[in-house]
Amino acid sequence: MDAAVAQTLFLAVCLFSLLILFIWKSMYQRDKLPPGPTPLPFIGNLLQIDTNGTAKGLMKMSEKYGPVFRLYIGPEMTVILSGYEAVKEALIDQAEVFGGRGKTEIFEQAVQGFGMTFTNGEIWKQTRQFSIMTLKDFGVGKRGIEERIQEEAQFLLEEIRKTKELPFDPTTFFSQAVSNVICSIVFGSRFDYDDKEFHHLLQMINESYCVISSMWGKLFDIFTSIMKHFPGPHNRIRRCFDVLEKYIVKKAKQNQETLDPNSPRDFIDCFLIKMEQEKQNSSSHFNMKSLTATVLALFFAGTETTSTTLRYGFLILLKYPEIEERLHEEIDHAIDREQSPCQEDLKRMPYTNAVIHEIQRFSDLIPLNLPHQVTQDTHFRGYMIPKGTQIFPLLHSVLRDPTQFSDPDSFNPGHFLDEKGNFKKRDAFMPFSAGKRICPGEGLARMELFVFLVSILQNFSLKSNKHPKDIDISPAMSNLLSFPRFYEVSFVPR
């Protein structure tokens, strides 16, 4: 081979190599995964994740890896979205792609692939659409449900009066009041505050809520196949769910015995009627297991989240008595003392509206958000996210985004007020998540928070045995769920 041929061949090989390199780099750039810390075998990045204040720790990680990064929670890759812009782009701008529900083993043992909260595809679409329409039929978002909340507020006020200004933990009272609203829809009746069965059901909800938020709950969720064989607090979650499920099944059977298809009394009746209508439809997802899972989700979420927000809110008011005093002034000016507060009053109460919004923002009840899942291979902000990847759009990072809130780590009603003192909406206010998976009970929760909080402040002033400067409003625990520290409060008649 002469020198000219060898030189030509060498040049061809070089050009071919460069072409292959270019193609490879192009494919790599197009399909590259988000950045993230190097995982260890089996446990992934668990040692690098804060065991308390998880969302806050993940926000810290985003400072290094950016608003879109990957973590291995155990052996599975998860993508974290941090900050308002990234979360909005995923949940709202690309709602369909990011609208899947990631699997949560700790809840899966209860719902077992049924219901509207932890499912995907047709079962989710059918059950969610039915549930939303049925809740509307029973007045959710309308005057009808507001009257139920106002009525329940009067029962709550009466129970508070019985405390005779003595300090007590308000957890049970708030849980009972909020739960009775959803119970009146789902079960067709409310419970008396001294009902022992009611107390037991609420205890199961509260206990499971606490364990789910603990490190034991997190370990069970990641290493389910191993942890279910080991003793520990995580095993109480299954027992709690069993108690709740048995009660729902008992109520459903009672309803079946006296069911009138032409006159449904509650949500369970409507579901039973739908089951009968769909029994010949092989593609229907309306069955007893789906009923149990759906009612369990409504009962659980409709009790714990709003009551915990109320509990957090009154702790914050004990910390800032000047805010409580300003609320009293606005309430007294806007509503007659003998009148029950209603949503219409909110238009004349910008400061109260701002305080309630700030309580929801600051309490940050579901900091990690429930897990989402991408429904197809997707390119997002320059990265490739494979179909089925679990996504955590951090609500904490949205509600505490410094580009959206001037002083995100402080409680400040001014976040929702303009320079004239009028209420100001904020796009980054996402305590109920956003997009296709937004909480269907958002309207109900907002109405409950307003009516219960204002009804109490109409009639009582708050008193604590602690000086305001000694009151700690940081969360007692903040993992999948967040809740306030224990406290006692005295309600002094005004």
Model description:
With 494 residues, the chain is of the alpha+beta class. The protein has one domain: Cytochrome p450. The chain has helices at residues 3-31, 54-65, 84-93, 105-111, 121-137, 143-161, 171-186, 196-213, 215-222, 224-227, 235-257, 267-277, 288-319, 321-334, 350-363, 395-399, 442-459, and strands at residues 68-73, 76-81, 100-101, 372-373, 378-380, 383-385, 390-393, 460-463, 477-478, 482-483, 490-493. The strands form four sheets. Strands 1-2-7-4-3 form a five-stranded mixed sheet, with helices on both faces. The protein has a two-stranded antiparallel sheet with strand order 5-6. Strand 5 (378-380) and strand 6 (383-385) form a beta hairpin. Helix 6 packs antiparallel against helix 7 (171-186) and helix 6 packs parallel to helix 17. The longest helix has 32 residues, at 288-319. The chain is globular and about 105 Å long. The N and C termini lie far apart (106 Å). 41% of the residues are buried.
Index terms:
494 residues; alpha+beta; Cytochrome p450; two-stranded antiparallel sheet; 17 helices; 11 strands; iron; endoplasmic reticulum; Cyt_P450; transmembrane; monooxygenase
How large is the count of helical segments?
17
Structural class comes to: alpha+beta
Described by strand count, sense and barrel closure, the largest sheet is: 5 strands, mixed
N→C terminal distance? 106 Å
- Per DSSP, what share of the residues sits in E-state strands of 2 or more residues? 5-15%
Q: Mean pLDDT across all residues, rounded?
A: 89
Please write the string of helix (H) and strand (E) elements: HHEEHEHHHHHHHHHHHHEEEEHHEEEE
Query: Please, what is the CATH homologous superfamily?
Result: Cytochrome P450
Could you say how many structural domains there are in total? Answer: 1
The parts where pLDDT drops under 50 for at least 5 residues are 17-30
For the record, the CATH class is Mainly Alpha
Total beta strands: 11
In CATH terms, what is the architecture? Orthogonal Bundle
Shape: globular
Strand order of the largest sheet: 1-2-7-4-3
Give the C-alpha Rg: 26 Å
CATH topology: Cytochrome p450
**Helix content bin:** 40-55%
